[in-house]
Design a protein that fits this description.
By secondary structure, the chain is mainly alpha-helical. Helices cover 74% and strands 0% of the residues. The chain has 7 helices and no strands. It has helices at 2-32, 35-51, 62-84, 103-110, 114-125, 130-137, 141-161. α2 packs across α3 (62-84) and α3 (62-84) packs across α6 (130-137). Mean pLDDT is 80; it is low at 1-5 and 84-100.
Length: 162
């Protein structure tokens, strides 16, 4: 019986992962601003989720759980990138990774700290409440609110200068 329940949970996890993969890719991109690194982050996220799917206590919160893993993986990748130095591949076009929607907004978002970008992306792009955003980031709701407030101040200032 336990094996049958485990197989059902794994099948459900596959469905959730397949449905959430595009959202996770966008979330990773909002933190890393690099398509290849974001794709690798999502692969790492899904691999980790499959390995530890039995630790998920509430299957209804699988999407939030995947978001948490994705944010942590993106942070790890960002830390490694800072430590080793990040140089684009020779011959690659750095502008190819910039979304075309609003270059001024994209430039302003790039100037935010990684934590501020995470809060802005989770709250405004993906619709998480600030309490949910705090849970995904592993911080207190007041801390998430403070990061969001500072991010919005920075964005207003940056965009008003342009």
């Amino acid at each position: 019986m336990a094996a049958c329940t485990s197989d059902l949970a794994l099948a459900t996890m596959h469905q959730v992962m397949e449905a959430d993969a595009p959202r996770l890719l966008a979330l990773a991109y909002s933190i890393l601003h690099d398509r290849d690194q974001s794709a690798d982050t999502v692969q790492d996220t899904l691999e980790r989720a499959l390995r530890f799917h039995s630790s998920l206590r509430d299957p209804e919160r699988a999407s939030a759980w995947l978001s948490t893993i994705c944010v942590r993986e993106a942070r790890r990748r960002l830390r490694r990138r800072r430590l080793t130095g990040f140089l684009p591949l020779r011959g690659s076009d750095p502008a190819a990774t910039v979304p075309a929607a609003d270059p001024d907004l994209d430039r302003a978002l790039r100037r935010l700290s990684p934590r501020q970008r995470e809060v802005v992306a989770l709250h405004y792009v993906y619709g998480y409440t600030l309490d949910e955003t705090a849970a995904v980031l592993g911080c207190r709701p007041g801390t998430a609110r403070r990061h969001l407030h500072r991010a919005l101040d920075s964005l207003r200032e940056e965009i008003s200068h342009d």
